[in-house]
Every structure is written in C-alpha cells, then in structure tokens.
Amino acid sequence: MASGGDVIERPAVVVETPGAAPARRWLVPLLLAVGWALSVAWRMWLSRHIVLPIAHTDEDSYLNTARALAGGPGGFSSENDLLRRVGYPMLISPAFLGDRDFADSYRIVQLINAMVNSTLLPLAYLLGRHLLRLRRSYALLGAVVAATLPATVFYAGIAMIDTVMAPLVVAWLLAVHRWITRPGPLAAATVGLLVGGFHLLHSRGLVIVAVHAGLVLLLFIRRRISPLAVLAALLPVLAMALVNEAAIHYLGNKVYLLGSPPGGSTFEALASVQGVGRAGAAIATQLWYLVVITFGMAGVAWAAAVRELWRPRHGDAARWTMGVALVVTVGVAGGASVILAGITGKPLDAIYGRYVQMLAPFWLLVGLGVVLTSGRRVVLRRAAVAVALLAGGGALIAVRLAYVASQGHRLRYGGFSAPELVALTGSLREMRPVIGSLVGIAGCLLLVAAVLVPRLRLPVLGVLVVVNLVTMQVIDQRVVRPAVATGAPTPRVADVGVRPGERVWASTGVHYVLRFNLSHQVTWADVRWFGEQQPPAAAQVVFARWAPGEADDWDGTAYGFVRLGGNPEQHWAAWRRA
What we know:
The protein is mainly alpha-helical. The chain has helices at residues 22-46, 58-69, 87-92, 102-117, 120-130, 136-147, 150-153, 162-181, 185-201, 205-221, 227-251, 264-270, 273-293, 297-310, 316-341, 360-373, 376-406, 419-425, 433-451, 457-487, 512-520, and strands spanning 75-77, 255-257, 504-507, 528-530, 541-544, 561-567, 572-577. Helix 1 (22-46) runs parallel beside helix 6 (136-147).
C-alpha cells in the first residue's frame, strides 16, 4: 500500500478461486465456530462466582420484567414510562420458564448472555474482511482481540443489556456498509431491523434511530435509494417500536415503575454556562475513555475516518459507514451526558463509560486496520492524533477533578462506571486520568512500533489478546468478587425455612442490595416493601433489619412474628407470623 493511504484505501479482498481446497474453504468457519464456543465457555467461567445480581437496580429491573414476561410474578423496575424498553427482558425471559430456583434461572441468563455476546467474534471477522479489507490472518486475530475486549466481556456475566449492544453495533454497521455497496429493499430492511433492535433494547437506541432516519433521508435526497427502499428501511423500526408497546401492554401492572421521566431537572441542569460545561466535560471524558481502553486505536480510527469524510478517495460505502459511526459515537456520548445531568438524586460521576462501551470493539478494529495496512507515514500521523487526544484529554480531566476538589466536592468513581479503567490504572476509588493517558499512550506507541515491523504484526495482536485476558482477571479480583461478597445474603432464603407460596414482604430497613437479592430468591411472588415498624396484615413472612443493640433493630415479637434466622452481621432476619 502507498504510504499516504488509510486502511480503507486497501484494494478489494481477492476472492478464492473455485479450485481452492475444500479443507481450506471450511477452515475459517470452523475456526470461528470453535472460537465462539471457547468464547462462551470463557465467559461462563468468568461468571462462576456471580450467583446473584451485583449491578443494582438495572439488573433487578430486567430480571423482574423477564420473570413477568415468562408468566411469573412481577416486581419493580427503575425505568420510567418514556424510556422503558423490554427487548432484553424478552431475550432472557426463557430462563424463568418452569419451576426452578433463582440461581438456576440466573445461570441460564448468563448462558444466554455469553452466547449472544460471543457472536462478536464472527461479526468482527466479517467487519475486518468486508469493511477493512484485512487479510484472513489479521481479520481472525483482530476479531479475537475485539471479542476479548473487557468493555464487552464484562457485561456477559450479569443481567445487563450491554452484553448485547457491542455485537449489535458491529452487525448494524456491517449492514450499513452492505446497503451502501448494494442498495436494495432487502439490505434496507436488514439495516432497519437492526436499528429497530436498538430501539427495542435501550433508550440510547433513540440516537441510532435518529441517525438512521437522517441516513435514509440523505440517501433518498441523493437518489441513491428508491421509495420502496425507504419504506423497507423505516417499517422495521416502527414494527419494533410496536413490539415494545405490545409487550408493555401485556405486562400491565405486574411491573411497576420507580423511575422519573427526564424533564425539568434535565433542563435546569443544562440551563447555565456551568451546566453546559459539565455536560461538555462529560462528553469529552467518555471519548477520552474510548481512546484509553483501545490503547489509542479509537483515536487512530477517528483520524482516519475524518480524513475519509473530508477527502473521500475509496468508495462511498466506507465513507458513509465511518460517518454514521462517528455521528453515533458523539451522539451517544452527548445523549448520555444530557440524561445523566438531569439525575439530581445522586452525586455526579467522574466518568460513566457504560453507554459508549458498545462502540469500543468497532473503533478498535478500525484502528487496527489502519495500523496493520497503512504506510509508515500514515500510521505515524494517525498515532500522533491519538497521542494528542490522550494527553490533552487526560490533562483536561485532571484539571476538572482538581477544580471540583477545590470546591469541596468529589465526583463519584467506581467499578461499574469504567471497570477496565480501574484495572488499567490500579485505582478502584479514585480516578487517575494522567495514569490512564500514560497507559493509553504507551500502549499506542508500543503497538505502532511493533506493527511497523511486518513479522511482529501477528504476535502483537496475540499480545493484545493476553492483555485483555489479564485485564479481565484483574476486574474479576478487584471489582466483581468484592461486589459478590458484599451483596450475597447468607444464609439463603430457603435455608432459613421460608416456604414456597408464603406471602413475603421486606422492610426498607434492610440494605437495598441485600433486600433485592433476598427478594429474588422468592420466585413465587412479588416481594413488596414496607417502611414502617408495622408490617402489612397480608404479610406471612417479612425480611427486616437485625441489628442487636441498635435503635433501629426490628423486634418482630411485638407484632406477632417469630424469627426464623438471618445474619446479624449483614443486618437482616426473616420472620414468620406466629
């Protein structure tokens, strides 16, 4: 390749000749199938310690809704009417069919997650071959790197919608590329169906729906698609929206919402220069985070994509696909920042990378495509952009954190806001943007230096896979296991003698994490809450606070209850009405 081109300048992949050996034609599909199976097994192994939810209240909401969709009792959801989505609960609802313990159902949810999440491997390979025009060996190892990226793998072990989002992003952008390459109603309907899937799954899908609508409009104005293709692209989105509404109607009042719709608080948070500045800082932090966790490859990819937008040289399909991906990246980061700004009931986050994590595998692959196939000068120029983004972003975030600290405040930071950042910077409680930038810069420079030597390109991809595996182990030790240890009530509900069919209530005096995980084990009923000393007359069993010697210790004997058991160290007990 000429030294002045990016990855999208690479010529088309050479098609195999009809005389190619059958064994070779089947080798890649076989490797992908085996890799998918190993990926599922690895994800299940990583989740072996997680037997109850650890990401409250999102997991609780999805699990309660899934159980209700499967015909079981309902429960609460932290969602609100405007942003409510049921796609993920529909996906995992088979786990709640039949009569089984919650632990078994939760394990099935993890298996469903692992199977769906692992589809990123074959999808990433297809992206490498068709969009990035990589040779087979590069595409295969690059796909393994993407499929082991902690930003994606982390969520496979818990009941979170994010386990589905990264594979869906890659599938959608592949479909967009195919549609632009070969316009037609079937390709348009495929893109529309995937966009509808985003809408059915999560509120961030609204950004993708808006971008999709803009893409359809632009293509139609430019006479690249027919009116039939417009309908084919839009009707599946409408159909998925109707499916969402139909599922909500089916649920009725079985799932009750605790969330408040975004409204005045959001506008108030943004109705000042300071508020706009906070939102802008949050957007910049999320984009910086993407560059860090991809070891600079997202920055390399953005530089290449912007150049292709302004100076297109290699076909509309790559140009349109990269443009769509850039708009969605900024849109999702911006939308998340606006929504989170309106949540005034809890401290602001130093970083909340969850919403943009779904884009990390795509930009990682594009960045790898640039450094693996471009000339030396192009690679160095793109790497310089990435280093600048890392250095500038880290410095600005450090200044922001220092300013907030000088005002006597502290921004929230912890495991679920950016788990791989915790692992890479070695800090669980305090964000270290300078160290994060240094890690990203070092990774970027080492990666670029290695790929400039052709014989080191495949080994360096293998090293990235090892780094991902080690990072997941650190996350497991530093984030997952402590969350499991603090959130699992002992003994189990069944072990203290609570019987199926009993009407169970829970006191708000029990810490919410323990209260939720106790309630999940009551698979036959929706466990409602009571906040006063007197439990409802309908309650046969209650979970209440057990804190011997403390003023808020709940004495069930005063209300005709007998203590069954519990854990005074965790401050909970089960009581049955005598």
